[in-house]
Batch of 2 targets.
Target 1
Amino acid sequence: MLNSVEKHIGVPAYIQIMNVIKKEILLGRLKSDDQLPPVRELAKIFKVNMNTVIRALEKLQGEEVIRAEHGVGYFITVTQNIDFSIIGELKKSIEKAKKDGLSLGMMKLLIEEVWKNVK
Amino acid sequence: MLNSVEKHIGVPAYIQIMNVIKKEILLGRLKSDDQLPPVRELAKIFKVNMNTVIRALEKLQGEEVIRAEHGVGYFITVTQNIDFSIIGELKKSIEKAKKDGLSLGMMKLLIEEVWKNVK
DNA sequence: ACTATTGTTCTATATAATTAGAACACTATA
DNA sequence: TATAGTGTTCTAATTATATAGAACAATAGT
């Protein structure tokens, strides 16, 4: 499930950690109210300093993906589990757009713009 | 169309420049083989050093959004113009996902993953 | 060839982001 | 109330990023 983070590949350790956790959620392997391993253990797993883990977890808190309980632990807090039919639809749209020559960078920008303008 | 870039707002000037150009393309105001203004002029417009413009343009080249011709200029190189029906579909999917509580961060990661796994 | 116009490269500097070490603080349970 | 297990904060150092100034190089037209 979790293994050590790659260093000096351009993408910061804490971002990689954030992504690992988000992917676990997208894959349904982490669900609402599940507790994460303690920060010190995560630090060992990812082979980074404890503060690098905390950096990642604090950012995830900012995105309201997890919550912290001082002295207790970190918990997944996404309010509902992902509806996989939505993922299927997204997949189709993306596939189509990619075939039509829309790059990933353009796609991301487009998504941000759409996101802003959607109620 | 183009105006000066915002400084000290967290997002680097060269990224803002990249996004401005991408948006012009998404909006259909810049099309394949259109020539961009010269780097020195862009530098004046955005009120940054010439090299900051170049930084943006080189990254856009990396994404194959534009191409450089030494001594001549920069040109849009996206192979085809965007099919707006695709944008409409994407919009619907995103709207749905947003309503279901999927955050922008999660959405972006999901899109990257889907992108990787799509032929 | 010369010149104006355009992109490119080299170098330096300032700023911001990233990571880490060590001490602190809260919680639960015995 | 002591202790083990957990998150938090403070500080420092390193590393990477972003921006800029100045000189170089290609192109096109004269």
Target 2
Amino acid sequence: MNWHDIPSLLALRAFEAAARHGSFSAAARDLNVTHAAIGQHVRALEDHFGLPLMQREGRGMAVTPDGRRLADSLGDAFGLIASASTDLLDQAKTRAIRVSITPSFAANWLMPRIGGFWDAHPDIEVELIPSMQLIDLRRDNIDVAIRYGDGNWTGVHSTPLLSAGHTAVAAPSYLKGCDTDCLADLKGSRWLLDGNRSEEKLWVAQNGVDLDEEDVTYFATGQLSREAALAGLGVTILPAPVASGHIASGALVKLCEEIDSAVAYHVLTRPEAVNPARDVFVKWLKSQTA
Amino acid sequence: MNWHDIPSLLALRAFEAAARHGSFSAAARDLNVTHAAIGQHVRALEDHFGLPLMQREGRGMAVTPDGRRLADSLGDAFGLIASASTDLLDQAKTRAIRVSITPSFAANWLMPRIGGFWDAHPDIEVELIPSMQLIDLRRDNIDVAIRYGDGNWTGVHSTPLLSAGHTAVAAPSYLKGCDTDCLADLKGSRWLLDGNRSEEKLWVAQNGVDLDEEDVTYFATGQLSREAALAGLGVTILPAPVASGHIASGALVKLCEEIDSAVAYHVLTRPEAVNPARDVFVKWLKSQTA
DNA sequence: TTCATATGATAGCTAGGCTAACATACAGAA
DNA sequence: TTCTGTATGTTAGCCTAGCTATCATATGAA
């Protein structure tokens, strides 16, 4: 396709609108520009083709036979473009929004609540994608990601969803009635920690417990350390939203909780991506923590 | 047609080229932009539609099924636009170029020569439009105008074609052998002048003849005054190119001629209008005065 | 004649489109 | 395995195509 002989697509669009309306002013209103812009485009096309396309007729403009032929072809072409665009937008509206969440957050916070979203929005399908890492929203085609941290990530828009201070918990069977007021009271316990979470070790150290002098077992994932605690094997540390579910069910007991934590669960999105359904879901997420 | 839901036409063009080539770099070469421009456009479209359109595949890019559907529609649409544009350009190439000339210039300078142009360029049709006034090239759909004056017109490109100093002439039958060296020698003659040409009166006055003391008849048009002179009724003043034809035929005798005149015949065009045939004709016009 | 609404013309503004430059990734040749 | 050519990814910053604002003239209805 030799684009050299084809004039400005914006000029062609302006001309097609002017020809369809028989008026520069009406075309301007249609395209949200001034009549001057339409006029300039049409003149430029007449210069490019070396033929008059429209001419004055009273207050409006009449299309010449040459102009009529061009306008008809352009109408067909832009009609195809409009149809293809609309079809794709409709298709995008029907696809599930892809949400990346950590497995623990999904199990303990989101799943218990997602039924409410489905009830309220049966027209919006949500595809939950468990993932442990911070992903690339664009490359991985993710609409929303929920991640635990300080929210200071580049390239995405992040808003805090809910606070997630560290919480020390253990199974009732492990505690056997032991009383605790602070982390230091837990000295001598068996610690079950996620080897990846240096923040947890820091929190414990900052609260009077030297982990180097404690009985600590490090697990490859937080899920494994959590399951070990649920089995009554010792004390573990969970983010508050994850812990709350287990505590409510009585499977774990809250021993000590971090107040005013800098870390939280955040909602990550790409604002340049237009997606109304994604926006509805994010709004619902935030309504669950109000 | 709701243009609000339709993304940038330039972005759609970039995407169609990338899809057709399976490569940002090849599309860039096709459209004479950088691969970065293509990449940005495709990403912007993916954000607009909320769907991936192309994805990495080794060194090139593969089109997704959604992208393929869009690309096919765009290919059809841009094909229509290309066809319509090319057809109109071809049509413009075949139409006659419209040349506006004054009747006297046509009769005395152009018509004796135009046969040479037709012989050299049988493929270019020239439509001669006699007109007395300076016209609006665009409004009147004129490709070339040839006009007499100082060339200082706004809104058009003018280049001098041939000098056109004033020339005093009379029929041999009127002169009856009278000898002249300058205009002053013509005192006492009957002057036949175009009432519209104040420049001619000025020239005569500047060369020693007070027309207020002469026998002067003013005509409504230059043609009438010229025909009166051809009939032997007196002395008239013509632009040199108009006079030269009559002098060569012996119908008129040159009495006195203006040297280094500021006025000339000029070729007027609109450079913003693209028209190769017009350019060929203008080039030929200038070759006739080299 | 007056008034509303059209197009014509153009100086000047601005943001969409692009480039330049540097990055990483892929694939084939040596 | 290494090197090289060529692909895409990213982004700061430039710039001109596209537009607006403004004032002009022209048209047609009241």
